[in-house]
From TrEMBL, chain A:
InterPro entries for the chain: DUF6691
Protein name: YeeE/YedE family protein
Membrane-spanning residues: 41-61, 85-109, 115-134
Pfam families for this protein: DUF6691
Species annotation: Psychrobacter pocilloporae
Keywords: Membrane, Transmembrane, Transmembrane helix
From TrEMBL, chain B:
Species this chain originates from: Psychrobacter pocilloporae
Keyword Transmembrane: yes
Superkingdom of the source species: Bacteria
Similarity remark: Belongs to the TsuA/YedE (TC 9.B.102) family.
Name listed for the protein in its UniProt record: YeeE/YedE family protein
Keyword Kinase tagged: no
Membrane-topology descriptor: Multi-pass membrane protein
Amino acid sequence: MLKNIIGLLAGLLFGFGLLVSGMTDPVKVQGFLDVFGAWDISLALVMGGGLFVAFFGVLLAKRQENSWIGTPIDMPSKTVITKQLIIGAMLFGIGWGLVGICPGPGIVLLGTGQWQAYVFIPAMVVGMLVYQWFEPKIG
Amino acid sequence: MSIQIDWQAFTPISLVGGLMLGVATVILLLGIGRIAGISGIFSSLLKPKRVEMWQILFILGLVISPVLYRLARPLPNVEISTSLPLLIAAGLLVGFGTRLGSGCTSGHGICGNARLSPRSLAATVTFMLLGIVTVYIGRHVLGLL
């Protein structure tokens, strides 16, 4: 029960953060990526602020045996940089640049009633399903 | 090419938003021991046998956040001028790419980099670079964006 409440609260707060930060505005996102045009550097503050807090969270998590609900804390330990990782990040970067929407803001825009999100998110679902079908074939 | 910062578009409040994102990821990490990677959590909804309730509620939280936000203050004005084919292409690329690359701006950009993960740093540099190149070509070479 507590796990579900924490999940919901974290989702809400994450959504508020995306709205306040400007990440749900594709014009701002593309302005941030437009380094050689009129460069809007605001979104560097988003990653900076997020990283700053998360960094201390990770330090705390390393001192904790378990999470608040008693489950082990998930700390991915893979360090190998694979072809899949880089090609995946490249494809994601191209898609992100094309419209200025990444998964979190896309989902939040469903709730604002922005019709474009109702095209983008189903297309994203299809992309993920294609991967699920494709995954066993690439290992 | 010269670099010109558009100070008129600069919004210092973005820092507050970033801090909120950080707090949300820390609540998830310390609270239930899980990583706030949006593409990963969302894709788990596509695996009906393995999805957990908290994942459904996290995504629900994202969807209803603007509804609650609107009670306190007006929603930020968002104008999307992207054409339909471009929206579809971008959605497909983001969906496939984030799964193949094991994460997006949240899972790699915030959570992974906070762990100083070399994989997340490599992924972040890569998607930032490709995003920058895509906007450069799309906007300044082809005039599409």
